[in-house]
Design brief:
Strands 3-2-1-26 form a four-stranded antiparallel beta sheet, with no helix packed on it. The protein has a four-stranded antiparallel beta sheet with strand order 4-5-6-7, with no helix packed on it. Strands 8-9-10-11 form a four-stranded antiparallel beta sheet, with no helix packed on it. It has one domain: 6 Propeller (Neuraminidase). It is an all-beta fold. The protein contains no helices and 26 strands.
Length: about 270
Amino acid sequence: MELSGRLIYTNGGTYLYALYFPSLKQELIHESPPGNISINSISKMDANNVIFEHCDALRKPNCLIMAFDINTRTLRTLRQGRLPTYMSGSQSIFFYDLSENTHEEWLLIANRKAINSPGKVAKAPMPKVLSNGLPYEIKTSVVEISPDEVVFIGEDQQLWMYQISQSRVVATGIKNCLPRVWRNRTAQLICYDWDSDELYQIDLQTKQKEQLSQLKRAHGLVYVPSKDMLIFGLTSLHLMREEREDIFVYNFQDGKKSKVFSNAFTSSGVWVE
């Protein structure tokens, strides 16, 4: 196993885990009290701290943005909101919340030291209605593509870019791209196409696409930039009767996919070296 570090991930429920590489030993590092709680959208602040959304159907407000210290195992509330992403270069946090005036949901940005004084970036998109008539949520955490830029799905259901230093929103002209992770090694964005149910990677400048059929049905994608590898979850049939969740690693350099941990579901995670 080439990787050396920790995958900090959630199963989408009440638990936070640390999966250590290369030993592949797992540790439960946080458990929320029992209830209708979901932890999701983990974002790394530094080697010892992460933030995430902590939602409880029985609480008002339903979703809070919380910070977790991996070493001390302490949790603190930052504010209400959803789908946070931390940008270390500008020490800012992107997240979604309702506008106080209109009660419409917006993508917001705030300095980490003034998180209760955010600025508006763009209005959140409504769910996409698929060909089968079912609604599909396309509002996701923004994806960092440079220290000064992120991409996100706009109100028109297309991909947009936001430049932090200029406070400027820029259209990319790219459709059917739910942004998942930025592949630093090749400067490509890995997207999910909700119409074809496929992952692909795209160059934002040339718009050239490359299908990632080898990653079909992969979820909870976490990119490891130093190794150009992807950690993800995959659902498979066990003994042709029941579904089983496992964690895999994909190496972009040799195209090999390998299972590294069994019977574990990852909905969101970050890599910490």
